[in-house]
Amino acid sequence: MSAPATSPSSAAGSSPAPGFTDAPAAGGQAPPAGTPPVRARRRLRDRLRRDWPLLAMTAPAAALLLVFHYLPTLGNVIAFQDYNPFVGDDPVEAFWRSEWIGFGNFEALFADPLFWDAVRNTLTITAFQLVFFFPLPILLAVLLNSLVSARLRGFVQSVVYLPHFFSWVLVVTFFVQMLGGAGLLAQEMREAGMQPFDVMTDPDTFIVLVTAEAVWKDLGWGAIVFLAALAAIDPHLYEAAAADGAGRWRRLWHITLPGLRPVIVLLLIMRLGDALSVGFEQFILQREAVGREAAEVLDTFVYYQAISTQQWGLGAAAGLFKAVVGLVLILAANRVAHRLGEQGVYSRS
Q1: With 80 as the cut, is the pLDDT of residue 6 above it?
Q2: Could you count the other beta carbons within 10 Å of the beta carbon of residue 88?
Q3: In angstroms, rounded to a whole number, what is the distance separating the alpha carbons of residues 36 and 43?
Q4: Distance, CA of 288 to CA of 179 (rounded, Å)
Q5: pLDDT digits (tens, 9 = 90+) for 104-151
Q6: 340 C-beta neighbours (distance < 10 Å), count
């Protein structure tokens, strides 16, 4: 006799179909929707147990960031007030008692021609430094990476890193002693019978001067991140390219620069987001020497026109304007980076 045929119902009941789960047992309750699985909770607990030393190490930095960067952001509210810190016993009471004027501070800011002069000077200096300063750390990193002697490379790195730790007072003083009217260059020109010139008080060359000061101070420091990116490039790529007959320039163009491109795009986007911030100490130290027309940038404008005159709402409005413009530039540059195939500051979800 042949074996009895298995009914379709019994066959279906013997093993669940793919993609389906058994119904809960009689009298059982299915877990409510939205409840995280036990395995996910256990995985999070395991990660916390594993990474708690790292979290403890980053906690002080996160606290400092919260206290000194995020909490002060709440103070931007006074950009919409005629804020007076003397109408209350403490800043909170002064905030509640100050008069709300809406966009009055912004209207006064945008109607001030000195504000637009400061914005124009700031953008001009930023554009000039993007062209003549931004590529130099890349070039320095490539040159340092090509040095064969590790001892020579370490010595050069130490020399070019050192000025970063000097204050702007010391940097400006150094340039005055070298290029000022009574400086070393002027004295040598007088001894040679030539008419000396004072670079430190010439408003026409001020943009070149501040760029040269920034290059001398921060060139080596800016090359660090590019040296790290160069260290991440696989050396076997250079060996394979050399075996295929590629020369030094070919390897630079097809291996080194593509390896640096993500870092270059990232730093360029961040620099564009900081386009309205070119520094404060460097410019306020030299403002009187070359005049307001050449040295007035947005940060010094806020100091002289808002803080010194106790127009706190006007200063907050200028700071908020700078932040909004920086955010727009970052978003626009990041979108361009995405279209060029780079990740940028953040990747699209």
Answers
A1: no
A2: 14
A3: 11
A4: 17
A5: 999 999 999 999 999 999 999 999 999 999 999 999 999 998 887 888
A6: 10
37-61 pLDDT per residue, tens: 667 777 888 888 888 899 999 999 9
Distances (CA, A) of 112 to 85, 107, 108: 24, 9, 6
Instruction: Assign 19 a pLDDT band (cuts: 50, 70, 90).
Output: very low
Q: What distance in Å separates the CA atoms of residue 157 and residue 162, rounded to the nearest whole number?
A: 9
pTM over cut 0.85: no
CA 96, distance to chain mean position in Å, is 34
**Closest of 122, 119, 114, 160 to residue 141, by C-alpha:** 160
Residues, the chain: 349
Q: Return all residues near 257 (Cβ < 8 A) that are at least 6 apart.
A: none
Exposed / middle / buried, residue 41 (Cβ in 10 Å: 0-12, 13-18, 19+): exposed
Q: Is 83 exposed, middle or buried (0-12, 13-18, 19+ CB in 10 A)?
A: buried
Q: Residue 145: how many CB atoms within 10 A of its CB?
A: 16
Query: Which residues are CB-neighbours of 278 under 8 A, at least 6 positions away?
Result: 122, 125, 126, 129, 210, 297, 299
Three-state SS letters, the chain: CCCCCCCHHHHHHHCCCCCCCCCCCCCCCCCCCCCCCHHHHHHHHHHHHHHHHHHHHHHHHHHHHHHHHHHHHHHHHHHHEECCCCCCCCHHHHHHHCEECCCHHHHHHHCCHHHHHHHHHHHHHHHHHHHHCCHHHHHHHHHHHCCCCHHHHHHHHHHHHHHHHCCHHHHHHHHHHHHCCCCHHHHHHHHCCCCCCCHHHCHHHHHHHHHHHHHHHHHHHHHHHHHHHHHCCCHHHHHHHHHCCCCHHHHHHHHHHHHHHHHHHHHHHHHHHCCCCCCCHHHHCCHHHHCHHHHCCHHHHHHHHHHCCCCHHHHHHHHHHHHHHHHHHHHHHHHHHHHCCCCCCCCCC
CB 227 within 8 A of CB 160: no
